[in-house]
Amino acid sequence: MIESDRELSAMVQELWDNDTNRLRPGTDYRISLQGKVGDTMGSDDKNDAAGFPLFTYVDESIFKKETFLAFISLLDNYVSDTGEPEIVTPEEEAENHKFLDSMMQTPTMKIAHKYLAEKNLSPKGQEEFKKQLYRIWFELYARRGSSRPDSSGFEHVFVGETRGARTVIGFHNWIQLYLQEKLGHIDYKGYSVSANSPLPDEKKHILALQFSWKDGIKPKGSIFIGVSPEFEFALYTLCFLSSPNERVKVQFSLYDVEIVCHHYNQKHIGTTYPVLLKYQNIK
């Protein structure tokens, strides 16, 4: 592991240790992995290896916490179809700012800000840092194939988008997955593993999976499960700003993970998500 990745791993471990709102698997939430699916999927359901929902239980009292409330309020602010320009209303802009304000009060975001400011990657002042976060996550841009601003880092990563009638892109957040599944909009198809990745574990916090949403298919997605919005927001911001590489390997807690973080024009997040490489042998 190169030195920069080692330093980043130490920071991610600190974020993890301070994620006080993280849910406990098997206690605060339970998932049902069911069967394994392949990497590709046609329009039929022959590849469906899961007859039941992914989530069997979530303690929804967590959703009353400030950062969860602020996060959930943003999930209905977007048109999923890429190519359809996004219109941000004053009310939605206010919700974006409220979300950022709630993020910046959390231990994880304070840790990330301190590190980024010390490295001269972020402004030291709170308001300037918030402006930087707004640009990275909420400023609109035109995704591939579109001539008008139709996407943002936040929409792509946390809410999910559709391209054409059949493809789901982005959508790397467990809260959105749970809420959409509860509404009947998600059909979980099963877990996904590549030749080199470990089998998923219902008691662990990272899962590769396949699902359908809004008539489209997400052939292979990868998400953290049970973590707080502030942990993911801090982690992805940290990786985006501190590494020019679009794939960063970090070790923390039980996990060896590659954080994929694609830049868009070097100003915005194109996409970002975790890829589980292996479980660490913690004695």
TrEMBL record:
<dbReference type="GO" id="GO:0016829">
    <property type="term" value="F:lyase activity"/>
</dbReference>
<feature type="domain" description="EndoU">
    <location>
        <begin position="4"/>
        <end position="278"/>
    </location>
</feature>
<protein>
    <recommendedName>
        <fullName>Uridylate-specific endoribonuclease</fullName>
        <ecNumber>4.6.1.-</ecNumber>
    </recommendedName>
</protein>
<dbReference type="GO" id="GO:0003723">
    <property type="term" value="F:RNA binding"/>
</dbReference>
<keyword id="KW-0694">RNA-binding</keyword>
<keyword id="KW-0255">Endonuclease</keyword>
<keyword id="KW-0479">Metal-binding</keyword>
<keyword id="KW-0464">Manganese</keyword>
<dbReference type="GO" id="GO:0046872">
    <property type="term" value="F:metal ion binding"/>
</dbReference>
<comment type="similarity">
    <text>Belongs to the ENDOU family.</text>
</comment>
<dbReference type="InterPro" id="IPR039787">
    <property type="entry name" value="ENDOU"/>
</dbReference>
<dbReference type="Pfam" id="PF09412">
    <property type="entry name" value="XendoU"/>
</dbReference>
<keyword id="KW-0540">Nuclease</keyword>
<dbReference type="GO" id="GO:0004521">
    <property type="term" value="F:RNA endonuclease activity"/>
</dbReference>
<dbReference type="InterPro" id="IPR037227">
    <property type="entry name" value="EndoU-like"/>
</dbReference>
<keyword id="KW-0378">Hydrolase</keyword>
<dbReference type="GO" id="GO:0016787">
    <property type="term" value="F:hydrolase activity"/>
</dbReference>
<comment type="subunit">
    <text>Monomer.</text>
</comment>
<dbReference type="InterPro" id="IPR018998">
    <property type="entry name" value="EndoU_C"/>
</dbReference>
<keyword id="KW-0456">Lyase</keyword>
